[in-house]
Structures are given as C-alpha cells and as structure tokens.
Design brief:
single chain; 353 residues; alpha/beta; four-stranded parallel sheet; globular
C-alpha cells in the first residue's frame, strides 16, 4: 500500500506545530498543578514503585524513573506486563498509571487491577472525565486539554512536568518556578529554528535514524524516535547507548544517521568515540551535547535553557520541531501521520486481555 500523501504544507500550517508552540504555558500550568496535587510522602514506606504506561506516556515515565530510583525498586512497565505481575502476586507500595487520553483499555485495566489489589494507586490523565477516572484511584488531572491528534507533544511534556512534581513530593527540591520554566521553553522554541532547518535538510534522504542515550535522557531519545517515525514514516528507533554499540550500527547505510544524546562527561566520551568510529566508514553520527560544554557535533539540536531535572522538558523540543520540518519536506501533514487511521485499525484504545 502506498503511503498517503497530502499537499505540501508550510511548517506552521498544521495542528502538530501549533501544539508544539502551546507547550510553554501549558507545561508551566502542569507543573504548578502537580505541585498542588501531590501529597508530601514519608519516603520510607514507598520502596517498591510501579510506573505504568505506553507510547509517549511510557517515554515520559522512562525519563523520571532514574530520579525515583535512589533507595527504591522501580518497575517501568507496559499495562499488560504490569497486570501479569499482579497475577503473579507482585506487591507495590505505589503504582503510578499515566494515560494522557484516559481511554486506553489496557491502561484502564492496569489501574483497576492495581486498585483491586489494594495498592496505593495514582492515575495521571489529561481528561478528568475519561473512563480511567472511574477505577477508584487517586486522580491527578493534568491541565493539558484535548490534544486531538495522534502524535503527542504537549501531552508528553505536560506529563513530564507533572511527574517532576511527583518527584519533588518524594523529597527532591523544587528548583525553579513554573513562570521560569515557561520562559525557558519559549526561549528554546525561539532559538531552535536554524538548527532544525539544517538538520531537516541534512536528513532529507535519510533511510534510518538510530537514537541513543542513557539514564534520564533515554526517554528523550525514545520519544524523539517515536515523533519522527509517526510523523514522517522514516524508520527511527532508540536504544540504550551501550546496546547501540553491540551490533546495531551494522544496520546503517550511507543514508542513515546515528544521533547520540549525552548529558554527562562519560556519555560525551562514548558518543565521540562512536562518532569517530562511524565516520571512519563514512557513516553519519551526530552528538547532541546536553551538558552545555560545547562538545556536540552536527546540527545544534541541544537545548540547555533548563538544568536538571527540568532539562527533560526542553531537550525534546528541537526533535519535535525536527519531526514537523521533516514531515513538511516530505509533503506530509504531521498531524495526520503517514497512515492516519492505523491506530484505529490496531484498536490501540480498545485492546483487552
């Protein structure tokens, strides 16, 4: 089946880019709302925590999991895998189910299973009246509104902001105000244009994108790959950095590109070693330096307007913009996705056990 095509669009002439540009204000509101919603827990009872979600929700949880892991056992799970563990009598002190739409049947079932098992369960969703609100868990609505397209942007960053507030409630310091987050995200959007245009032009004929990172930004890399795949149809995947180096780079062609996100000195060193090796075969590798040390390579897709942990909010923005620019260059509407009704045919929101 040929990929559906639309007429060539200007970059700002679609819903996807409008949602991207709505992020500063909405993300700041999500952070403020999350700080009001979460109780401040005695940390000792919360030793075993399950983080449950799928798609962009799972990627958001992946970003936050390392911040919760000190002295705790953190399980990052898809809904079906979580329900399998419940059936095997696994126990958790806290279960966090993230479903941006609140309509995913497996996420609803996972939240219900957690409640029925007697676990302390929190549900995060953008729609406080969605079906998932009926399971009996503590509901934390995220003021994202209705992001009525498949590829989520503000839903992702709003979720990350809410999860950062959860981490703060468990003892991390609140390092920045929502107003300053809003200003920093706006600065990222205002400054990213030239690098995004350079990257989109360089990738006009790309046949495969391989993202990699480690720790907190593995979720960023995974979300970047997802956004590009679902808006452009270009094969894109993400791996933990060490796993990328174990054989997967042999998939590359002269039209492929590896993109490594690095937020620590050791990650920068690994990324630079990888770039040197790949370039010896005339293969493309970009290093996205998230440390602000100026050691990146390729288009400057790094955003350093926010420091950890808030950098999780800004780091994804250049890749959201890149997904839009790449789709537009291919004559696609990124809001519709290459196969607009595939999610309905896959019954993603209606799957059941």
């Amino acid at each position: 089946m040929d990929r559906p095509q639309t007429g060539r669009l200007m970059p700002h002439d679609n819903a996807f880019i409008r949602y991207i540009h709505s992020q500063p204000k909405i993300v700041a509101e999500c952070l403020a709302a999350g700080r009001q919603a979460f109780p401040v827990w005695d940390q000792k009872p919360l030793q075993r925590i399950a983080l449950v979600g799928s798609g962009s929700s799972l990627n958001a949880l992946m970003c936050i999991a390392p911040s919760l892991s000190t002295g705790r056992d953190i399980a990052l799970l898809n809904p079906l895998d979580f329900m399998d563990r419940v059936e095997r009598k696994a126990g958790y002190d806290l279960v966090v189910v993230l479903s941006q739409s609140g309509k995913s049947a497996t996420s609803i079932a996972a939240a219900q299973a957690a409640v029925d098992a007697g676990f302390n369960t929190i549900v995060l969703t953008a729609d406080g009246n969605a079906p998932i609100s009926d399971v009996g868990a503590k509901l934390v609505p995220m003021p994202i509104g209705d992001e009525a397209i498949g590829p989520k942007t503000v839903g992702y960053t709003g979720s990350v902001a809410t999860l950062i507030a959860l981490v703060e409630a468990m003892g991390a310091p609140a390092v920045i105000s929502p107003e300053d987050v809003e200003a920093a995200l706006q600065a990222t959007l205002d400054s990213a244009g030239a690098a995004v245009d350079e990257a989109a032009s360089a990738l006009e004929d790309v046949d495969h994108l391989m993202f990699a990172s480690r720790g907190r930004h593995l979720g960023t890399a995974t979300e970047a790959a997802l956004k590009i795949a679902e808006t452009t149809g270009v094969p894109a995947a993400a791996y933990p950095t060490e796993e990328l180096l174990h054989g997967r780079l042999h998939m590359m062609s002269k039209k492929s590109c590896a993109i490594l996100l690095a937020d620590t000195p050791i990650d920068l060193e690994m990324a630079e070693q990888t770039r040197t090796a790949l370039e010896s075969y005339d293969l493309s590798c970009w290093v996205v330096d998230l440390t602000a040390s100026g050691k990146g390579h390729g288009p400057a897709l790094s955003s350093t307007t926010l420091s950890a942990p808030m950098d999780l909010l800004s780091a994804i923005v250049p890749f959201q913009l890149l997904a839009n620019a790449m789709a537009v260059k291919r004559g696609l509407d990124p809001s519709a996705m290459p196969y607009p009704d595939m999610s309905q045919r896959l019954s993603i929101k209606r799957m059941s056990r």
